[in-house]
Amino acid sequence: MDIKIIDNFFSKTAYSDYKLAFQEPKWELSPHITTANNRGAGVQRYFAIEEGAFHLSLYPAHIISRELDKEYYIHRMRFRVTWPCKNSGSTPHIDAYNDNGHKDYDITAIIYMEDSDGDLIIYDCYAPDEFNKNAKFKRITPKKNRCVIMMKHYWHHPCFPVKTDLRYSININLKEAK
What we know:
By secondary structure, the chain is of the alpha+beta class. The chain is built from two helices and ten strands; from the N terminus they run βαββαβββββββ.
């Protein structure tokens, strides 16, 4: 599979800035709170240029562009906090950016802010059945300051944490600048 893992992704200063963003009170304004019966257990917060969070997108875009030797910009960035849940995880999916399912981005990156037991499962097949034990997949355990970059539109899903209190992740879809 075409996946790159970067440990120690953020510098200490940038890491602290992103940790502070997770603690901002704007979470209460999030229109989408998920539950165990609604695709996961946790809260999520989308960032866009209109929300004045454009500066938050510059650092990961720069690091990923440097690592992949291509220029990328952030198309969508979502902060997610997931709490323990007895279910195994969300349904396998490919990120869809707009309502008609068009994938208007080139790569996906997930940055983990803390160690967690809520693994990421990435499938190397088309439309996997989440109960198909024969599907080829890669399992990646969230580690503090680790970035997982998927160079293709892979089917994937996170497992919910069971042993750790919360899983903090930043989900990013990037578009190649042309």
